[in-house]
Amino acid sequence: MKKYALLFLCAGLLLCGPEAAANGIGLRGGMNFTSVPSLKQFNLNGFELEALPDSYTGFHFGFVGHFSLNGIFLQPELLYVESGQEMVLNTDNLETQQDYFTHRFSHLALPLVGGFRFGPIRVGLGPVLSVLLDAPRYGGIQQMELHYQDLMLGYHLLAGLKVGNILLDFKYQGSLTRFGDHIRLGDREIEFDTRPSQYIFSVGLLIL
To answer: How far apart are CA 55 and CA 112, in angstroms?
Structure first.
């Protein structure tokens, strides 16, 4: 994680230079709406598991920097992100039953977005590194565990406004690496490739 953070910081210094270092650093927060593609449905010992495609509403907060020079801007962020996915487990042993439950995840996200300014309007893109802090385990079936990747690399597409020291941003986040890894049910492992996407609305206030 330290290696990626240093890489993002060095990229920011190279793109902006020392003249832009005083543009602004502040706080930001907002809502994120997560969609997770359905897992491959599998049937093992009478169990079938899938992720529902409906969006999950989460939140984020943290720090943001905004550095600009000659119509080019760079925006690094350090965010705590809560997201999740709705899931359903079908059992078909004696009689068919459905058990709906929610998995909630905590991430530390390191986005770095660069792009162009047209007056108050900003458009840009860049990478985001997400570090998994906490992932729940479903306890309805004692022998079933869902495993996720600790690190995930994605990208942000940004459209936003900067009015004075206020940042209003709309971002789309896609995944370049998979988040889901495998399901363990007893002594069996089943691989799955889950790549969530998010629509993100954020408000930032530059205070330094």
So the answer is: 24
d(CA 171, CA 173): 6
Residue-range definition of the domain harbouring residue 38: 2-206
Cα–Cα distances (Å) from 55 to 50, 164, 174, 197, 200, in that order, read 14, 33, 14, 9, 12
Check: CB of residue 171 under 8 Å from CB of residue 157.
yes
Cα 74-25-112 angle, rounded to 5 deg: 30
Distant-in-sequence, close-in-space partners of 137: CB < 8 Å, separation ≥ 6:
145, 146
Is residue 83 within 8 Å of 198, Cβ to Cβ? yes
**Around 86, how many Cα atoms within 13 Å sit in the side-chain half-sphere?**
12
Name the residue type at position 65. G
Indicate the number of domains in the chain: 1
Look up the CATH number of the domain holding residue 85. Answer: 2.40.160.20
Integer angstrom CA distances of residue 42 from 104, 157, 180, 191: 22, 34, 15, 10
Encode the chain (208 residues) as per-residue pLDDT tens digits: 445 444 444 444 444 444 444 478 999 999 999 877 655 555 556 666 666 666 788 999 999 999 998 899 999 999 999 987 777 777 665 555 667 667 788 999 999 999 999 999 999 999 999 998 987 655 555 556 667 778 889 999 999 999 999 999 999 999 888 776 666 665 666 666 677 788 999 999 999 8
